[in-house]
Amino acid sequence: MPVGTIGSVKTMSPKELIEDTQAQIILGNTYHLYMRPGHELIQKFGGLHKFIGWERPILTDSGGFQVMSLAGLRKITKDGVKFQSHLDGSYHMFTPEKAIEIQNAIGADIIMSFDECPPYPATKDYVAKSLKTTLEWAKRGQDFHKFTDKQALFGIVQGGVHKDLREESAKALIEMDFPGYSIGGLAVGEDKKDMFEVTEFLDPLLPQDKPRYLMGVGTPSDILINIANGIDMFDCVMPTRNARKGTIFTRNGKLIIKAGRYKEDPRPIDDECTCYACQNFSRAYIRHLFNSGEILGLRLATIHSLHFYLELVGMARKAIIAGKYQEFMTEMVPKLDTLMD
Description:
This protein folds into two domains: 223 residues, TIM Barrel, CATH 3.20.20.105; 96 residues, no CATH class. Helix 7 packs parallel to helix 8, helix 9 packs parallel to helix 10 and helix 13 packs across helix 14. The strands form three sheets. A seven-stranded parallel beta sheet has the order 1-2-6-7-8-9-10. It is built from 15 helices and twelve strands. By secondary structure, the chain is an alpha/beta fold.
């Protein structure tokens, strides 16, 4: 899911997202949309879909990760989190009910429970205490949620890198019977080996007939490995953020478009890609745009990277249907995160 934190996937219009990348769903951020323009304003405009001109599905996270990231600017209690705005220092309070209220007003199709995302590293005692809070908040949010026929509320599995805590979390949330389950608290500094072990461990525990969403992950190879571990949904700022900085993902590895060796390179970013950037422009021209500070360079790089990510998961889906996913993953993963020549 391309990330549109404040209601906009950076450098892209909704039309381009649909026509140039075939995006089916985008993600918005509850914390940032609450801060500006405010959920009341969004509601006045008929919800986020109408406000931003996007007719396809939208997922919002609860703002939990962002609030917990405000080190020194927030205080956690059993009722919720009191925090200061990163914009103007004003004080606010997020409770499980408030997070749901905001997401109800925003009108996203899939919304998240409010959770405490513990830092990494943290002691197991702290993670266990945090998990208890998250489970209590999940139940409170579920009880408060008013639009169950319009918005699917996901529970968020926490527990750090501790398998017993992850199992406790999963079983408690399954008992609450959410329509889908997110996996949070990963890609926050732990070794990738630990991340893969957690998702592999959770695969047989979570319901097979409900979607699993791994929050904030990740690189192309991270996605393919976690698909093998049973994950269905992903979001990450990586394809868009890296593209704007000149690092572009392709099926043959990462391309640093500002590098001098591309100054006279007539080839497209990726010879096999059908995106607008690759069909119409050379590496030399896109490098020129970046080095000249032209916004078009950022836009073309973003179009390609999002097209590539969505094409990659489309290829993964076809391989699964054909019963050849292991072979597909084995072929693709070694190439994806290397630097291109």
